[in-house]
Amino acid sequence: MALAYKMDDHLAHIAMSSEDLRAANINPKTHLATDYLNHFNEVLMMMEILPSMPDMIGDVMSWQPKDYPSHFRDTNFTGKDLAIAAFECAPTTVRTPFEQTIAMVDKLIIEAQRKLAEMDLSNEERAEFAVSEALELIRPMLGEADRIIHGREETIEAEDMSDAQADIDSLFDMAEMDLSQQNIIDDLFDHAPMLVTNSMHNSAIEIMPNRLRRNRKFLRSRMKYRI
To answer: What is the CA 157 to chain-centroid distance, rounded?
Structure first.
């Protein structure tokens, strides 16, 4: 049975059924479409090639946050009006965590832009490290957004994510205070996985994957090139 919802005039009479939503690649349970994540994937791809093509920095810096409806208004996505209308009718239990997750992704990308803009990108090794570190933070968050879009129940609570991030940053700060003390660096690698597990639970341990498993030589490099 098709449903019609009251919203913006040009969307007011759009009928939505599960079949209509599926046909437009919109999840009928959450009313969200993964096409929105392309807005973020594009800048991540540009960031990936930035170390070998530093002249791409202008393209990376030109990226700006864009909310869900604006993305579809500006895209050639088939059924864009349906996507916007469906989003307006998304359950609060879906839309609220989704928008919170996207807000965190926006902040992470903006912070990465700031750091990359301040760097000497002619140092390819340093640029590769900075990009890798940024992507390791951003991609798990996009994975969280993807889980919400597909209606998967194992999602990360924003408060838990913030707490775990603070715990891990605190350990990195401890290590930076005195790199000559190997036990501090060992402590970082011994305790960081425990902090993530305790704060996030289950599959959420993926939130900071490789950063927690870097070898000690790479950690020292991080402290040398901290940005």
So the answer is: 14
Give SS3 for 181.
Answer: coil
Q: pLDDT tens across 8-17, in order?
A: 444 444 557 8
Cα separation, 18 vs 97, whole angstroms: 22
Exposure class string for 178-193: b at 16+ Cβ within 10 A, else e: eeeeeeebeebbeebe
What is the structure's pLDDT at 165? 53
In angstroms, the CA 101 to CA 36 distance is 13
Q: What's the distance, CA 75 to chain centroid?
A: 21
- Across residues 123-138, what is the average pLDDT? 95
Taking the C-alpha atoms of residue 10 and residue 49, their distance in angstroms, rounded to an integer, is 40
Decide: 87 and 99 in contact? Cβ < 8 Å.
no
List the alpha helices (DSSP H) in 7-91.
18-23, 38-49, 57-62, 68-73, 80-88
State the DSSP code for 7: -
Q: Measured between alpha carbons, how far is 194 from 187 in angstroms, rounded to an integer? A: 11
Residues 6+ apart with CB under 8 A from 137: 108, 208, 211
| Rounded percentage of the chain residues whose pLDDT exceeds 90 | 57
Give the DSSP H/E element, type plus range, for residue 4: strand 3-4
